[in-house]
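Researcher: Please predict.
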Amino acid sequence: MRILGIAAAAAAAAALVGCASETDEVAVVAPSAPAHAVPAMAAEPDAAPAYVDEAAASDLYEIEAGRIALDHAASPDVKRFAQQMITDHTSSTNMIKAAIASAGLSITPPASLDPPRAAMLDKLNGVTGPDFDRLYLHQQLMAHEAALALHQNYAANGDVPALRGAAGQIVPVVQAHLGMLQSMGAA
């Protein structure tokens, strides 16, 4: 079962990475155009350090993208969604930090974005208005699909019970975000 979970997470990551390459240009007028590949999940997503690194990077991207959206988005719905992302992903970061502490681990989540996620933010900073809304929602859909696979896999197969519990609590939040994105027409 553990191998099946890892294989499913790896397949999800590979599918997302296959959506766009590092050099793809973004066509912000086409909502189905690849915005940028979401970074692949860590090689061992069921090992605590790899899970923490990936979950923290995901949350940091969501928080920073949300802040950009509050300034650049045209749609009030997109701005409300962005504020919800800031709130919820700050909360999930705090849950993971609390789980790390309760497990007595000496893992420090990264405090800065990895280059692929930083590039995604750069793309967001380059547009405003309706073009921003389409790009932001597309990136959010890709990022949340990858986050869902990460948290589901760790909740099922992770090596630290406290972190497994946190991952399990985060899964329904990410699923709700995906539902919101779908209702907003993200593609």
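Model: Residues 68 and 125 are 7 Å apart (CA to CA).
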